[in-house]
């Protein structure tokens, strides 16, 4: 019978562990603090920011909210990031994306000090991941590794296929699986005969951005399938990049949408906030 990998339950478990760590740090006089910057009032961004603040509250992390007007200049935003970089009472800095068109996202993300870059997007943190050094890891791929490990899925020695090569999910996901001693293939829109490639996978991670693209014919019998996508179908119901009903009959374990990978992203962001304390101590 197919195992449903419950991201809600696993993220709740991680949050409980973090709660204890945060409480312990408080006894040492350290209050873990996350600064969240939002420019403009994009409705989806506002929901994400609200969820991040709620998770901070749940765990005992102090959150500082900086809600800036849509017409905030790039220079004003960079000045705020610089100020937060210099504050000893701020451990993590998160700039909610997307930013308005007149602001260059890359410039802003690169301005966050690597030791406060809890999203794991700074080139220094990406480079650290490549060579196996300490640093922050992008939250969604880090969450997927936790989903697999805490569900009893063996990664070492397995053939893994990652569909998607984005800087936020696909590439770091491949590197993390390599770190766990998997054999990894990265497939993408230019892959010839994608079906044949994905059917080799013991663990298939799909982050392609196309609703229900992966059907049963793309999946090997008994594979573990991780669905990173999130979309609304024609009936306004949430669905993923994987055709869940079709694929669930064929695989040994699968993540649902919603309730699979999604909750893990915020749990790992909270984990990065807590880890920032020891990372900053070492500097």
Largest sheet: 6 strands, parallel
| Helical residues, percent | 40-55%
Quote the CATH topology of the largest domain.
Rossmann fold
**What CATH architecture label of the largest domain applies?**
3-Layer(aba) Sandwich
CATH superfamily of the largest domain: NAD(P)-binding Rossmann-like Domain
Q: Which class of the largest domain in CATH terms? A: Alpha Beta
Number of domains: 2
Overall mean confidence score, pLDDT: 96
Alpha carbon gyration radius: 19 Å
Oligomer: single chain
Query: Cα distance, first to last residue?
Result: 49 Å
Structural class, from helix and strand content? alpha/beta
Instruction: Please tally the β strands and state the result.
Output: 11
Which spans have pLDDT < 50 for at least 5 consecutive residues? Answer: none
**What sequence of helices (H) and strands (E) makes up the elements?**
EHEHEHEHHHEHEHEEEEHEH
Going across the biggest sheet, name each strand in turn: 1-11-8-7-5-6
Helical run tally: 10
User: What is the percentage of strand-forming residues?
Assistant: 15-25%
**Principal-axis shape:** globular
Give a verbal description of the structure:
It is built from ten helices and eleven strands. With 283 residues, it is of the alpha/beta class. It folds into two domains: 29-114, 3-Layer(aba) Sandwich (Rossmann fold); 139-262, NAD(P)-binding Rossmann-like Domain (Rossmann fold, 3-Layer(aba) Sandwich), CATH 3.40.50. The strands form three sheets. A six-stranded parallel sheet has the order 1-11-8-7-5-6. Strands 3-2-4 form a three-stranded parallel sheet, sandwiched between helices. Helix 6 packs across helix 10 (262-281). The radius of gyration is 19 Å and the shape is globular. The model has no long low-confidence stretch (mean pLDDT 96).
